[in-house]
């Protein structure tokens, strides 16, 4: 059985629309620069960033690709309405993802593919810089 949808993740007020709005029929990502879901623990990110800064101060070159924040831009990529369910979902359920959905995960191919493309481009760019 899918994990219940986190009410704050699926509510439109998290991305600037009505609180009654949810991720159903969303077709665009969030374009607001620096956007964070309300449920994201930003303290963890700050700890990682602090550790990276510490390593940099010791002369190590370290960078982080924050896939958590990148994923949060993708309200259109919640997998719940796209995956096969054991029992057919009614239109009423689709309109209320909190009744059946797992809106805390992003499983459409586009999201992890984008992470991989960014990482690959970075590796290629970095290796070219190191050669020159």
UniProtKB/TrEMBL annotation:
A matching Pfam family: PC-Esterase
Domain Trichome birefringence-like C-terminal residue range list: 13-121
Domain of life: Eukaryota
Family: Belongs to the PC-esterase family. TBL subfamily.
Name this polypeptide is given: Protein trichome birefringence-like 34
């Amino acid at each position: 059985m899918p994990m219940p949808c986190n009410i704050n993740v699926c509510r439109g007020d998290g991305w600037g629309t009505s609180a009654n709005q949810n991720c159903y029929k969303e077709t665009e990502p969030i374009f607001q620069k620096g956007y964070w879901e309300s449920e994201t623990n930003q303290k963890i990110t700050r700890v990682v960033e602090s550790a990276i800064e510490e390593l940099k101060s010791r002369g190590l070159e370290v960078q982080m690709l924050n896939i958590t924040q990148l994923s949060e831009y993708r309200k259109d990529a919640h997998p719940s309405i796209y995956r096969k369910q054991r029992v057919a979902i009614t239109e009423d359920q689709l309109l209320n993802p909190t009744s059946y959905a797992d809106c805390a995960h992003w499983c459409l191919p586009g999201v992890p593919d984008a992470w991989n493309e960014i990482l690959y481009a970075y590796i290629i760019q970095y290796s070219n810089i190191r050669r020159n």
